[in-house]
Structures are given as C-alpha cells and as structure tokens.
Amino acid sequence: LTIFFPGFLYNLYPLSLGECLQFGSLISAVDPVATISIFKNFGVNKNIFFLVFGESVLNDAVSIALNHSFAVLTQTEFSGGQLIQMGINFFIIFFGSIAFGLIMGIIVSLMLKYIQFDNDQFIELSFFFFFSYIPYILSEAIGLSGILSILITGMVMGHYAKYSLSPISRVTVENILQVISSIAEIFIFAYLGLSFPLISVKTPP
C-alpha cells in the first residue's frame, strides 16, 4: 500500500495493487542471517537462538504463502470474489505445504531408519540428499509451495532422520550443509551488492 497509493496519486510507479501486495509479501520476511551468525560466534543462549530462528522461519513460511495467494490479484482486476479466492488459496498453500512436508519428512525418516546401506556412505549420502529434494519437486508439481514443504521436511528430518545415519555420514552431512549454507549466503549478499549499482528507476514522462 505504501507503494501503491503514492504511485496511483503521483504516477510514480506503474504497479497494480496485486503487484504491490506481492512485493510487500516478499519484503515483509526479515532475514536474520547476520543476527544468527553473531549468535553463533558469541555463543548466545540456545533458547534465544531458536526463538529468533523460529520466528524468521515462520515469517518466511507466511510470506511465501501470501506471495502465491496474491498472484491471483495480478492476473485480473480486483474484486470481492478474488479476495475470497485469495483466502482459500492461502489456506490451501500454507497448510497443504506444511502437511505435505510433514508427511514426506516422516516417510524419508522411516526409509532411512529401516533401509540397510551396508556401511556404504556414498549410497547413504546420495539417498539422503536425493530424497531431501524430492518433496520440493513433488510439492511444486501439485501446486503447493516447494520451499515451505522442503522447510518442514528438513525440520522433521533434522529431528529424526539424521539419527538413522551412520556417525561418519552424519558428520559429513552436517559439514556439507554448512558449506552450502555459507556459499548461499555469500552469493546472495554478493549478488545484491553487485546488482544495486545497475538498478535504474524509470519514471513515466
């Protein structure tokens, strides 16, 4: 709304209400990457760490579901029926993705628990990462939020699946995930920093 009304009154930003709401849903999620990194370095109490991390995860989940729901408003003109449809879409995407991720997390955890890998770490790790990514693909295929589903799947697997791995595979998985996380954070900040000077604001004549 902060973007829509000034843009509507002064013709600054040619964005529709639906596009503004989508943009708002994207920037509403606060990313506590720097805060969590500081917490890790200073050894802050784990309860505070998980409170901040959990709050950010919940914000991300709601933001993703809202973004998918607001997509309806960008396709046609706003109406009361669309508002109802948006609410239904939010409910289906949010709770459906959570349920799907929960089910997939339980299934993968049970598979890792009962399948015997005969101390073959390569197959065990391949199985772990492959089936960790499957929920994302399936969730997107059925119209849910893949990011939200894989988030819930990861939370479930973090509590149950990792204890079914062999000690060597467990340490390897933790190290690989830390490396991937660090690379992703570096890429995001580098991309934003490098792309900022290239942004040009176009105003209508």
TrEMBL record:
Annotated ranges, domain Cation/H+ exchanger transmembrane: 3-200
TM annotation in the entry: 90-115, 127-156, 176-199
Annotated localization: Cell membrane
GO process annotations (BP): regulation of intracellular pH; sodium ion import across plasma membrane
Membrane topology: Multi-pass membrane protein
Annotated GO CC locations: plasma membrane
Domain of life per record: Eukaryota
Keywords associated with the record: Cell membrane, Ion transport, Membrane, Sodium, Sodium transport, Transmembrane, Transmembrane helix, Transport
Matches recorded under InterPro entries: Cation/H_exchanger_CPA1 (IPR018422), Cation/H_exchanger_TM (IPR006153)
Record-level Gene Ontology MF annotations: potassium:proton antiporter activity; sodium:proton antiporter activity
Protein name stated in the entry: Cation/H+ exchanger transmembrane domain-containing protein
